[in-house]
Structure formats: C-alpha cells, structure tokens
Design brief:
mainly alpha; two-stranded antiparallel ribbon; 4 helices; 47% helix; 5% strand; HODM_asu-like
Length: 74
C-alpha cells in the first residue's frame, strides 16, 4: 500500500501470477490445490470470473492429469 502525497489517498496494488496448466501437471500438490480452488469456488465468484467459459477445458485437463472428480461430483 502506498499513500498518495497530493491527496492523502491510499493506493492498493496487487500482483497477478500466471501459471501454465502444464506447470500444474508437474506438481501434484499444486494441481490438487488448483482443483480444490476451481471446484470449490462460490457460484457467484465462478459466474463473475466466467468459469463457465472454460469449464470443459479445465475439467478435461484435470481429468487427464488424475483429478477425476468433476464439478458436479460425478
């Protein structure tokens, strides 16, 4: 966080990390953590982030790499 000198306001910044799916496949712990986060996201959050646009791709990747439980538990 940084305070802006002229206004006294506070600026909060974040850093976004991008990890290729293939890197997740190389780490069982990271893959499991991603699967849990993906599948455990609140419906409102998933809708806001557009998960439905990538659900088939992500679930296919997870199944192909041993994370076999789908979003609906099947």
């Amino acid at each position: 966080m940084r305070r802006l000198l002229q206004t006294g306001g506070v600026l909060f910044t974040i850093r976004v990390w991008l990890t290729p799916f293939q890197a997740l496949a190389e780490s069982p712990e990271q893959l499991a953590a991603f699967a849990q986060a993906w599948r455990g996201a609140a419906p409102e959050f998933a809708a806001y982030k557009g998960f439905h646009l990538y659900a088939d791709l992500v679930e296919g990747f997870l199944r192909a790499h041993g994370e076999s439980h789908s979003v609906n538990g099947a």
